[in-house]
Write a structure and sequence with these properties.
The protein is mainly α and about 240 residues long. It has one domain. The chain has 9 helices and no strands. The longest helix is centred in the last third of the chain and has 30 residues. The N and C termini lie close together (about 10 Å).
Length: about 240
């Protein structure tokens, strides 16, 4: 389970750093990699931390900041399979490392384990900006295999901000079993977007753009929530 959390944390951190930092990126990536490896050592998961850094570097190459992904949807599928495999193969650990022992000492009552906490943090970080990358890959794939220029694609105002907030809400509400509130949030998005979509009277591209982006975003959040739920049950 800890390996899945570190994996998603590394990939999510790569995309966040690319979005937030425009200069001295190499230094920022190096510092982030060292911090992740040090934290992994403190969690007695050094090998998993090193592999997570390697996967983050591969993700940065196959999923560029701008333009289509070099391998289409395959990087996303392989990342999901790798995270799921980590939860299946190693759902829980008896030796959580120094940081795990500190967590166990200070956590209130029967709180979640450090492995579950890292998995939740990894999912949250991944859903922020990497979720946008997943949606972008799906949209480019649907709109001609990446041949369509991003500037030529239909856009919806606030998508880069609404998307992460929406995914976090879906993730949290799903884990909280607040399904009624979850349905209300998803319905509210459609209602708010309806006036903007209804003006799309030419070929329906904006409506298709909205539907594909929303569905991919929701599926990504639900998959992350299921991964955490699976890890908790298996652990």
């Amino acid at each position: 389970m800890i390996a899945a959390g570190l994996l998603l944390l590394a990939v999510g951190a790569v995309d966040l750093l690319r979005q937030m930092i425009r200069t001295r990126r190499v230094l920022a990536f190096a510092i982030a990699a060292v911090l992740l490896i040090v934290a992994s050592a403190g969690l007695d998961a050094l090998v998993a931390g090193i592999l997570a850094v390697a996967v983050g570097a591969i993700w940065m190459w196959v999923v560029p900041e701008n333009g289509p992904a070099r391998a289409g949807l395959w990087p996303v599928a392989l990342l999901g399979l790798a995270a799921a495999a980590c939860v299946v193969v190693a759902p829980g650990r008896e030796r959580p490392g120094l940081l795990g022992q500190l967590w166990a000492s200070y956590r209130p009552g029967e709180a979640v384990s450090i492995d579950v906490a890292v998995l939740v943090i990894g999912c949250l970080v991944f859903l922020l900006e990497s979720g946008n990358a997943v949606v972008r890959i799906a949209l480019r794939s649907e709109m001609g295999g990446g041949a369509v220029d991003a500037d030529a694609a239909p856009t919806l105002k606030g998508g880069r901000l609404i998307g992460p907030l929406e995914r976090i809400l879906v993730f949290v509400l799903t884990l909280s079993a607040a399904y009624t509130l979850l349905a209300a949030v998803l319905a509210a998005k459609g209602i708010v977007r309806f006036p903007e979509i209804s003006r799309d009277r030419d070929d329906g591209n904006r409506a298709e753009y909205f539907l594909i982006g929303s569905l991919v975003s929701w599926v990504t959040s639900l998959a992350a929530a299921f991964l955490v739920w699976w890890g908790i049950r298996a652990g």
